Each structure stands twice: as C-alpha cells, then as structure tokens.
Amino acid sequence: MPGLSAIDEVTVDTPFGPPSDSIRVGTLAGTRVAFLARHGRGHTILPSDLPQRANFWALKSLGVERVLSVSAVGSLKGELAPGHLVTPDQLIDRTRWPRPATFFGEGVVAHIAMADPFCPAMRIATRNGAISAGATVHPTGTLVVIEGPAFGTRAESELYRSWDADLVGMTALPESKLAREAELCYATLACITDYDCWHEGESVDADTVFERMAKNVAVSQAAVGHLLAALPPRAGCGCASALDAALVTRPEAISSESRARLAPILNRRLGVSV
Length: 274
Hints:
Elements: E1 5-10, E2 23-28, E3 31-35, H1 52-61, E4 66-75, E5 85-86, E6 90-94, H2 120-132, E7 137-138, E8 142-146, H3 154-162, E9 167-169, H4 172-181, E10 185-194, H5 206-228, H6 256-261, H7 263-270
Parallel strand pairs: 4-10, 5-7, 6-8, 8-9
Antiparallel strand pairs: 1-2, 2-3, 4-9, 5-10
Helix pairs in contact: 2-5
C-alpha cells in the first residue's frame, strides 16, 4: 500500500486459532490502519478454510472499528463490466460446508440483525472514495456468496441472474455476520474481474481472474486512500451498538470462560477486557 508508514507486524493469539496471517499495522494519510491478507501471503488458504472468527477477533482486539474488504467478484449483468467496482448492499448465502458464522454458542446466545448486511455509512464512504479514485463505480448490488473453490456452472449462473442478483463471490460470508457481531462497520469494495460463465464466450478461470484483479490494484489502493480521508463517524451508527438488541443471554448467566473467550466482542456490552 503506497504511503503506509511506521509498519509493525503483529501476531495475535485468539481462542479461535491463528488468523490468516500476521497483521500489518501502520499509518496511512494520518490514520492508523491494520492490513490482513485474508488468504495469507502467497494466497494459501481456500475461501471455505478462512479462519474468519480468528481474523475478526484479532482485528477487534487491536482496536479496529471499521473493516473494508477488497474482493474479486464475477458479474451477473452486462452493464457491470470487468474493471468496474461495486459497493454491494445485499448478500445471498449459497455456502454449504461448515463456515463458522458466529462467535456465540457454548452458553452465550445472540441473534444479530442482518437485514442490511453492510454498514450503510461505510458503504457510501467507500463508494465516494472509489469515485474520487477515478473508477467506474456502481453504488449498490446483490452479491451471491458461493462455496468455492470451484467457479459455478452455467446453470447456477443463470439461476442467480433469474434472482436479479448482480455479483458472485466467495468470501463476504461469514465476514459480514462476524463483523456485525463484533460491532464493526463493514463494507466490501468488489472488483469485477469477469462475467462469470453466463456471458457468451466467457469461461471463468483463475488465470483470467487474477490477471484482471492485478489491473484493479492501483485504483483500489487509491480508493482506500480517499476513504481514509473521509471516514464516516461511528457516533450514531447502528453497527457500533449491534449487540444491544441481539444479546439475549443474561449477563449473570455468562460464564467467566465465555467472557474470556469473547472479551473483545463483549467488552462494550458487558465491560469485560481482553
């Protein structure tokens, strides 16, 4: 990331195992930021094997308040062309294998609200940052999250199109759910790399996806820089207090073990510390 300075490599131990990689913490445009390679440096972790609970626990424990996910996606509509960026506002879950999607359980119950799976203020700020970077940006869209690692069939692609979905990807779930449980503002900057396989003459393969993703790197980096210059306030954002209406287990019924395991997640709500 050009301009990132005072970089420290931070290794975080979590109750959910190690994160995808060490976390690089530094300063960019006067703002303290943390960067985590979702698939590990060298891209060594499958989408279905990502340790997302460890990732978000680690970020929360470091004091992170907002998370921007930069992701490669396929397009399900002709007007959403490769090279364009999208800030999706909705998700459809088509994952199948066990992808732990909650921090809770083991004696603690919370039912998080997910009607709007992305933070509205963070999504708008991300869109504005991408526009300032000179990208062609689509402000909304429905992202279908598939299991992977294989790309979908033509029949699946046409099914998602019949649902009026816009994009297909592999990582936004359970990310968005875990971010909401951790009371983090979360948005995705979706970089379109292909037309999936519904498009005439289009056959998706990893070489094509990563070649086109590389072309999006510079504009994505510029978008992050512009976003940092205009981060939305957390005051009044529902993400910051999401557990107030979600945590249903009485505080006195939560064991000391669970409080320790969920310390960064429950700190604001219950006054526990890491």
